[in-house]
Amino acid sequence: MNQLPLFYKTIVPLSKERHGSLYIKPPENFKYAKKANSIYITVVEFHKAACVYPIVFGRSEDGAIFPVVLLGLQNGQNLFVNSGGKWLADYIPAYVRRYPFILAADRDNREKFTVCLDEAYAGFNKNRKGQKLFDNAGNETEILKQTITFLSEFQNQVQLTILFCNKINDLGIIESMQARIEKAGKQTALGSFMCVNRQRLKDLPPEKMIELVRTDMMELIYAHLASLNNIEKLLKKAVNGE
């Protein structure tokens, strides 16, 4: 059984037949993200995210790597969402902001996507609270059009992110993180995440370095490396609640 994406519980294709009378209230808080200690981001988000979060990499079962922002130092811990569900940072990852909608890839054609939603989302209702998804003629409302545009842009950025991750993976400059963080006498290892090895990056042949610069991938690498300074801030946040 395929595991559902983070946050989502009941994903179904969007349709005017099934959801024609549905209204949506935007999320009042981010409690649904309270237990996410890391969240996927795309390359277009690197520069803004790097100002706040550590950007690290994970590896999927098929060996592909992907970028995430680190939000906590242990499973089920998001230090950027308080007890009231408020997000405690200026930048909120697009993955979080797209909820409760999502694009699902077709099983037979991975380049074809269907707009879906999480019917378990409490903000969906038929009590005229919020905004309708479809008008009386069955056409998409402005809020739904904006949502679909956002999903499409996000998916385009996912493809660019895959290209970037494949490149740095192929170059062999990614390694497991060696950082160990101590809190209250207990150590937390970040070995399940990965980062770019600075020395391996420096040792790349000149033509590979030039390619990274010309494709703007070097900027993304530098943003990632600079963001690792936020690990210390994350620890301080964990210890002092700041």
Describe this structure in words.
This protein has 242 residues and is an alpha+beta fold. The protein has one domain. 32% of the residues lie in helices and 20% in strands. The protein has a 3-stranded antiparallel sheet with strand order 1-7-6, covered by helices on one side. It has a 3-stranded antiparallel sheet with strand order 8-2-9, with no helix packed on it. The protein has a 3-stranded antiparallel sheet with strand order 3-5-4. Strand 6 (101-105) and strand 7 form a beta hairpin. The mean pLDDT is 92.
Summarize this, please?
The protein has helices at about 15-20, 45-50, 95, 140-170, 200, 205-215, 215-225, 230-240, and strands spanning about 10-15, 25, 40, 55-60, 65-70, 100-105, 115-120, 125, 130, 175, 180-185, 185-190, 195. It has about 240 residues and is of the alpha+beta class.
Task: Give the arrangement of secondary structure elements.
Blueprint: E1 11-13, H1 16-19, E2 23-24, E3 38-40, H2 46-49, E4 55-59, E5 65-70, H3 94-97, E6 101-105, E7 113-118, E8 124-125, E9 131-132, H4 142-170, E10 174-176, E11 180-183, E12 186-189, E13 194-196, H5 198-202, H6 206-214, H7 217-227, H8 230-240
Antiparallel strand pairs: 1-7, 2-8, 2-9, 3-5, 4-5, 6-7, 10-13, 11-12
Oligomer: single chain
- Whole-number mean pLDDT: 92
Alpha-carbon distance between the termini? 40 Å
Stretches where pLDDT falls below 50 for ≥5 residues? none
Cα gyration radius (Å):
20 Å
Series of secondary-structure elements, N-terminal to C-terminal? EHEEHEEHEEEEHEEEEHHHH
Strand arrangement in the largest pleated sheet: 1-7-6
Shape descriptor reads globular
Please describe the biggest sheet, giving its number of strands, its sense, and whether it closes into a barrel: 3 strands, antiparallel
Specify the structural class. alpha+beta
Residues in helices, as a percent range: 25-40%
Strand content: 15-25%
Number of strands: 13
Number of domain units: 1
Number of helices: 8
